[in-house]
Design goal:
alpha/beta; 5-stranded parallel beta sheet; 55% helix
Length: 338
């Protein structure tokens, strides 16, 4: 009767010991082999599983790499496994009939490939089965971002430039990355949008990581506040509020926001650092939503005339001026090459 090697793959982004019922049945019923000690092996032993660590290739830490990211998807990919690992695995297979190989965070693809080739040359010896004991939930790769940022901000082994930054010194980069994302969206370049979203996310995570040392809040606090806000401001989704359309959804959002902020003026909370045309449009929008009748400044200055142009136009003034500027830029290039 042929044996069976069960390659058990688990998500390194979930807490150790979080496994499917099928995975728990397998590790309790059969010997578990793996290449290194980990939080997962400790959890299995604590639950009564028999776990044996076989010899493995030298880790990155043995070659002088600081702070190896063990048990993470960022762990160095191992080289082709030593024959002793494969031979020991096959010896355990012959002794027990069925064994479970607990894969490393990178999935142990090299070992699985060599094992598959060996078993293909010896038909009838054993079958190779892949079982997922856990898998990444949506958004799990965000944990990798936090892991990488922690490494970059390490006091000794991190990046000196990032550790030297402050919220103020990083602020221009946040604006620059946001504008680059805006350009990618305008160009309808999906690949660029994906890349620039990552750059904006980098700014968010870096600011949050700096705050751990300076402002006593973390990325989890940022995410938690966002989740709470989304739930509060969307009662038509998370509660029993009924809405008749998009206008009512927006009105509810603004009403909830107003109650949360307790602002004394409709001008409170406007981002003053935004471009001037966008600022003018935002002020006029706030006034219109509040139903206020406020006269425009007399058109005696350029600024006042621009403000009046924004107020009397139905277009997005910021976008319109940008489009005109880009058209002019193309005209300049045409003249230069004529």
């Amino acid at each position: 009767m042929s044996g069976s090697v069960i390659l058990l793959v688990t998500s390194p982004r979930l807490p150790a010991g979080v496994l499917t019922a099928q995975a728990w049945d397998l590790v309790r019923a059969h010997p578990v082999l793996t290449a290194a000690e980990s939080a997962q092996t400790a959890a299995l032993r604590a639950a009564g599983a028999e776990v044996t660590v076989l010899p493995s290739p030298p880790s990155a830490s043995a070659s002088g790499s600081p702070l190896p990211l063990l048990d993470s998807p960022l762990a160095p990919v191992s080289a082709s496994p030593r024959p002793s690992v494969l031979d020991s695995l096959l010896a355990a297979l012959d002794a027990h009939g069925t064994v479970v190989w607990l894969a490393a965070p990178d999935g142990d693809e090299d070992l699985a490939r060599e094992l598959g080739l060996r078993l293909a040359r010896e038909p009838g010896r054993a079958t190779l089965e892949l079982v997922y004991g856990s898998w990444d939930p949506a958004g799990a790769r965000l944990l990798d971002v936090v892991t990488v940022m922690d490494r970059l901000m390490h006091p000794q082994a991190g990046d000196p430039w990032k550790r030297a930054q402050t919220h103020a010194s990083l602020a221009p980069f946040l604006l620059e990355e946001s504008y680059e994302l805006y350009d990618a969206i305008r160009d309808e370049d999906a690949d660029a949008v994906r890349e620039e979203l990552g750059d904006v996310l980098l700014q968010v995570v870096l600011h949050a990581r700096l705050a751990e040392e300076t402002s006593d809040f973390t990325i989890d606090d940022v995410a938690g506040d966002l989740v709470a806000k989304l739930i509060r401001r969307n009662p038509h989704v998370f509660a029993d509020t009924e809405v008749g359309g998009l206008d009512e959804i927006i009105a509810n959002w603004e009403q909830i926001k107003k109650a949360e902020k307790s602002r004394g003026s409709v001008m409170d909370g406007v981002a003053l650092s935004q471009p001037a045309l966008a600022l003018a449009a935002k002020l006029l929008q706030r006034v219109a939503r509040a139903g206020l009748d406020v006269p425009l400044p007399p058109p005696s200055t350029l600024g006042a005339r621009l403000f009046e142009a924004v107020a009397t136009s139905e277009e997005d003034a910021e976008a319109a001026l940008r489009q005109a500027a880009l058209h002019y830029m193309n005209s300049v290039r045409t003249v230069e090459t004529a």
